[in-house]
């Protein structure tokens, strides 16, 4: 019911905007992510960020090309790769040419394979994959393809920045690594082991384990196990309900050291940590909300919160997706020629609303940008989860991993 309601509201808004501009057809972007189940809050938050970015950054400025508007069409994949492929086909059958997805690299791997095969078989109905948050390094390495673009820093890029901070802290002697048992969780663990070994071979990895994704109700045993190892730091790529559950279990068992994360913030998470997370929770990511980098960024964040008071700008890169896609469509002079749009997008350099430059690296379609290490604190301009707490940038690596090698062997049409 929630998904149908969202679809109806989004469609009604898009038709109104389209009619006002005098055009019958909008440029549709399929949003394929969880809108039900344990990760629904994360999915709905991302959906609202896409809707807001499309309206504020494109539609309110007159759209693209000859006045065409962006329309975000939600599809609930229930965090399932199989369901995602079904929804992908439904979107394609509806004539949608742009696919946005981010939650779960397992889903992203399934989608990128399916889209690559579809485009080979259907050159007149090609689609582009706008990956805004699935960070398995393989997606822009061995599994790269011309139709896939990643706007988030991948797991290796983020771990490289994060381990720079860890390596500089002489008090860290023992590290515990824990994550969800799927491609992304495994990639985080592998990157942590590799980078720590290169930068601080003296650090002892006292734990390295994976747990079932979305199925653990009580993480207390994991918290106790971590405490028993006397770890000085914890590294996890957990997200959604799994991040909330794991983090609370660690802190409630008396842990006081740093917990280095990828996704320990946002709707349903930040308030759950509150004061207990201050001084411990760290997050590696892109997009600086605090302190605001400009009046424009500050106004954008305020306006989003006014429209969606129960949601957060937890994935600021979504604004980059929308702005860069609009530029690519205008540069290509078409919203249906996917080769032209993709060619315009690859290699693009973009000045982000968040105050940094982004380059969509041509050889593997990986966005290169600044990566920040942020702290959970109440000393913020823009809080999250209506909690009074948010993320404050502590360290920044500009154009992180810009020269990092890739195994991608891009095959262009």
UniProtKB/TrEMBL annotation:
Signal peptide: 1-24
Single GO biological process annotation from the record: amino acid transport
Residues annotated as domain Leucine-binding protein: 27-373
Domain of life assignment: Bacteria
Swiss-Prot/TrEMBL keywords: Amino-acid transport, Signal, Transport
Pfam family name, one: Peripla_BP_6
Keyword Signal: yes
UniProt cross-references to InterPro entries, sorted A to Z: BCAA_transport (IPR051010), Leu-bd (IPR028081), Peripla_BP_I (IPR028082)
Keyword Transmembrane helix: no
Protein family per UniProt: Belongs to the leucine-binding protein family.
Protein name, as recorded: Leucine-binding protein domain-containing protein
Organism per entry: Falsiruegeria litorea R37
């Amino acid at each position: 019911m929630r998904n149908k309601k969202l679809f109806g509201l989004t469609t009604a808004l898009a038709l109104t905007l389209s009619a006002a501009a005098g055009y019958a057809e909008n440029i549709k972007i399929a949003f394929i992510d969880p809108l039900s189940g344990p990760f629904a809050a994360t999915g709905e938050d991302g959906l609202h960020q896409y809707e807001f970015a499309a309206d504020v950054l494109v539609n309110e400025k007159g759209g693209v090309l000859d006045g065409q508007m962006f329309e975000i069409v939600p599809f609930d994949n229930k965090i399932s790769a199989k369901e995602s492929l079904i929804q992908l086909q439904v979107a394609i059958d509806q004539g949608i040419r742009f696919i946005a997805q981010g939650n779960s690299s397992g889903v992203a791997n399934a989608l990128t394979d399916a889209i690559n095969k579809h485009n080979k078989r259907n050159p007149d109905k090609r689609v582009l994959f706008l990956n805004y948050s699935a960070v398995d390094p393989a997606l822009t390495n061995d599994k790269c393809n011309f139709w896939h673009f990643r706007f988030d820093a991948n797991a290796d890029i983020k771990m490289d920045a994060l381990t720079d901070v860890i390596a500089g802290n002489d008090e860290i002697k023992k590290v515990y690594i824990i994550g969800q048992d799927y491609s992304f969780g495994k990639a985080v663990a592998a990157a942590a082991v590799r980078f720590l070994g290169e930068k601080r071979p003296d650090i002892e990895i006292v734990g390295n384990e994976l747990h079932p994704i979305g199925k653990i109700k009580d993480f207390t045993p994991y918290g106790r196990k971590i405490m028993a190892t006397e770890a000085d730091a914890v590294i996890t790529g957990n997200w959604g309900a799994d991040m909330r559950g794991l983090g609370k279990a660690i802190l409630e068992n008396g842990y006081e050291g740093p917990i280095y994360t990828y996704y320990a913030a946002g709707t349903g998470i930040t308030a759950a940590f509150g004061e207990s997370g201050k001084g411990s929770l760290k997050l590696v990511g892109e997009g600086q909300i605090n302190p605001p980098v400009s009046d424009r960024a500050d106004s954008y964040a305020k306006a989003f919160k006014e429209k969606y008071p129960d949601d957060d700008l937890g994935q600021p890169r979504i604004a980059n997706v929308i702005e860069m896609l609009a530029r690519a469509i205008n540069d290509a002079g078409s919203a249906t020629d996917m080769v032209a749009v993709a060619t315009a997008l690859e290699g693009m350099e973009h000045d982000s609303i968040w105050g940094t430059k982004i380059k969509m690296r041509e050889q593997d379609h990986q966005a290169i940008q600044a990566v920040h290490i942020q702290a959970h604190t109440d000393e913020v301009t823009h809080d999250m989860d209506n909690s009074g707490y948010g993320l404050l940038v502590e360290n920044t690596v500009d154009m992180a991993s810009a020269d990092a090698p890739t195994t991608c062997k891009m095959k262009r049409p």
